[in-house]
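can u do me a favor
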């Protein structure tokens, strides 16, 4: 999956801060392997109720709308495709 994402240019879209948060780089710039996901993993996918989900995310700006630019680029629209209590994506950020 890492090779496919790298080949598609997806990894280069992240800023250095994004890469650090995802474990690609530590604060000193040392390279680390990116996390490995199951083969059926998608950027956004259905999740069980009760855990992290769009309802609890800082990027939820209106019912069914996400303002995260990476999500919009991946999804093609800001419209969240499922019930917000049952959907989450890799760009989740806890609402404070």
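np, heres the sequence
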């Amino acid at each position: 999956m890492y090779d496919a994402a790298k080949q598609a240019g997806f990894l280069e879209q992240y800023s250095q801060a994004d890469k650090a948060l995802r474990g690609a780089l530590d604060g000193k710039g040392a390279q680390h392997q990116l996390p490995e996901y199951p083969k059926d993993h998608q950027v956004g996918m259905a999740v069980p109720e009760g855990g992290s989900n769009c309802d609890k995310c800082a990027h939820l700006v209106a019912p069914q709308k996400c303002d995260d630019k990476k999500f919009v680029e991946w999804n093609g629209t800001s419209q969240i495709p499922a019930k917000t209590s049952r959907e989450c994506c890799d760009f989740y950020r806890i609402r404070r």
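Residues 69-75 form the longest helix (7 residues). hope that helps!!
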